[in-house]
Amino acid sequence: MRVSLRAPHGERHVRVHPPAPRPKRGHNPPPTCCTACCTVLVSPSTHTRARVCAARPALLRDALVACARCRPDIMPVVRARSAGTKPILPYCAMLLDNVVGYVFSTHIHDTMSVTLRSISIALAVVYIGIMIMLAPTADARRSAVATAVTALLLAISIPVSVYRLLTDADAQQSALGAVNTLTAIMFAAAPLASIRTVLATRDASSLPFTTISMLTVCAASWAVYGVILRNVWIVAPNVMNAILAGVQLALCLLFPGPKRAAASDAGTARTKLE
User: What are the boundaries of each domain within the chain?
Assistant: First the structure.
């Protein structure tokens, strides 16, 4: 419509668009996608949003299974009532990685990642507590406590430093993503601390086979998820995790150790008898 406005220097016409019609009471237009699950995307297409929504259930299932990936490795410690020579470093690296990952996931508003990181943090605290309580000697307990405290201080100080030193949201996201990549590599590579012993003895039984297997599957799934989200800071750490876990998995298969080799031979013999 046209509205005539009287101005001091004459008359002019201004085109005013009528307001959009209000929706009827009780009528809600159907949503095109789950908006909450696509908040990290920048102007995503409908096809990309659909792929994100479709990928989430499978990723949630894989990640929930992987959250308990250390349980088969911690149960022998609980049954023996002693941590023995098992290192606490992988569990401390797990705590550090998941705390930094939790802050990063909160920053990009990825609700599913926040939930899974919270579960992993709780499990890491439980594992660390078990390793400290069941340390075989007083010196081993003091060393375990020192390692755990160091990991906790790093987990707290790194995000705080990022938010205090950087004010731009994009810069904060990049810094947190880079740090999360480093902590993820530390977590995935932690079992390789004993690689010299593995190569010298040709026995990889000290490597947590179940943890490594689940880490390989989980990292590969999350790398695909990061590609769908087009977020390099989700792709990078998970690609590195998958590579490192694959190397450790190859070591476990090449040097199974006497116990694993005996169990494998027994399973093969049982299959032949059946």
Answer: 44-193
Chain segment 61-110, per-residue pLDDT in tens: 555 445 444 556 677 777 788 888 778 888 888 888 889 889 988 888 88
Where do we find the tokens 């081993």? 140
Whether the pTM exceeds 0.70: the reply is no
Round to whole Å and give the CA distance between 249 and 119: 25
Output the DSSP codes for the chain: -EEEEEETTEEEEEE-PPPPPPPPTT--PPPSS-GGGGTTSSS--HHHHHHHHHHHHHHHHHHHHHHTTTHHHHHHHHHHT--TT--SHHHHHHHHHHHHHHHHHHHTT-HHHHHHHHHHHHHHHHHHHHHHHT-SSHHHHHHHHHHHHHHHHHHHHHHHHHHHH--SHHHHHHHHHHHHHHHHHHHHHGGGGGHHHHHHHT--TTS-HHHHHHHHHHHHHHHHHHHHHT-HHHHHHHHHHHHHHHHHHHHHHH--HHHHHHHHHHHHHHHHH-
